[in-house]
Design goal:
Layout (H helix, E strand, L loop, with lengths): L3 H15 L14 E8 L2 E18 L6 E17 L6 E15 L2 E2 L4 E6 L2 E5 L2 E6 L8 E6 L5 E5 L8 E8 L5 E7 L5 H5 L5 E8 L4 E9 L14 E5 L9 E7 L2 H4 L3 E6 L5 E7 L2 E2 L10 E6 L3
Parallel strand pairs: 11-16
Antiparallel strand pairs: 1-2, 2-3, 3-4, 4-5, 4-6, 7-8, 8-9, 9-10, 11-12, 12-13, 13-14, 14-20, 15-17, 17-18, 18-19
Length: about 300
């Protein structure tokens, strides 16, 4: 007979023998936060550097049969503000720096995306890194969108939605070939970078894939950014098709073929307010601004990709 004291000694040894071995991590990264505060000329200069890591996961169908892709995205926002008792908070700097590296079962690959831009917030969503700059007073938020597929900047978007107003479009095959439309409308804190010095230019519309921008089209109207006209708008983007004459935000075409064959005979509508709309034909996978229907005084011009 085995004594109970012997059993008490043997059982822990059995559990130890059966316990699984813990593997070493394939990735081990640390995010740090820094804060420095000085008092100068009656005010506090507050410099914060907030860092974090996110894992982006998405199903990549861009090259045919889909595969899962993963990236480790490291972001930091370096923000300098001045605060005083008798003054509004003055944001003197708010800069985002971000890098992305592919993640596989063997660990991290080389840096595939590197970003530095003015931003107040950053989010990682599917295959996109999205920055937001809030602006001040009457300025609406502007969102820059970067692609993890390519590391490229796709567009800037404004309007309703967490990351602005986007339209999407896909088709049956042989590849999905998703298309995206987004628009940057004045008035934002990024207007100079996105719209340029011409005060007549009030919007830039981008036609893109998930990988890269394809076209940029600028909308202008006399005195547009010099006055209050953009403040009167409540903009909305819609695809108009024969099957959906009232417009849709996502257009799926149940048809085989390449993008030039399938993405045609469609209209992009920009509804500025109840009485003002712009309609741009899409022919052969290209927006055709010279055939657009425009209100009096408005013009559309294709502009270079950034």
């Amino acid at each position: 007979m085995i004594r109970s004291s012997t059993l008490r000694l043997a059982l822990p040894l059995l559990f130890l023998a059966a316990a699984p071995a813990f593997a070493e991590p394939i990735v081990s990264e640390t995010s740090t936060t820094e804060t420095k505060i000085e008092f100068q000329d009656g005010g506090y200069l507050i410099n914060t550097v907030n860092r974090r890591h996110d894992v982006a996961s998405y199903f990549d169908e861009s090259q045919g049969p889909g595969v899962m892709k993963r990236f480790l995205v490291e972001t930091e926002i370096d923000r300098l503000t001045r605060e005083a008792d008798d003054e509004e908070i003055d944001v003197q700097r708010s800069v985002l720096r971000a890098t992305a590296r592919p993640l596989t079962q063997t660990g991290l690959g080389e840096v595939s995306m590197k970003i530095e831009t003015d931003a107040d917030e950053v989010a990682v969503s599917g295959p996109y890194v999205v920055t937001t700059i809030w602006g001040c007073c009457v300025e609406q938020p502007a969102h820059e969108v970067f692609s993890l597929y390519s590391g490229k900047r796709l567009f800037s978007a404004t309007g309703p939605g967490d990351f602005g107003d986007w339209l999407t479009m896909g088709k049956k095959g042989p590849t999905y070939d998703q298309r995206i439309v987004a628009a940057h409308f004045a008035i934002t804190a990024r207007d100079k970078e996105e719209l340029g010095e011409d005060q007549d230019r009030v919007a830039v519309i981008t036609y893109a894939t998930e990988v890269q921008p394809l076209q940029r089209v600028a909308l202008s109207v006399a005195g547009g950014r010099d006055g209050d006209l953009p403040l009167e708008w409540n903009t909305k983007l819609l695809w108009i098709t024969a099957d959906q004459p009232e417009g849709v935000e996502h257009n799926f075409i149940n048809q085989d073929g390449d993008a030039k064959t399938v993405y045609t005979g469609i209209t992009l509508r920009l509804q500025l307010d109840d009485a003002t709309r712009i309609e741009i034909p899409l022919e052969g996978d290209r927006l055709v601004p010279e055939k657009a229907k425009l209100p009096d005084g408005y013009t559309l011009t294709e502009v270079p990709l950034q």
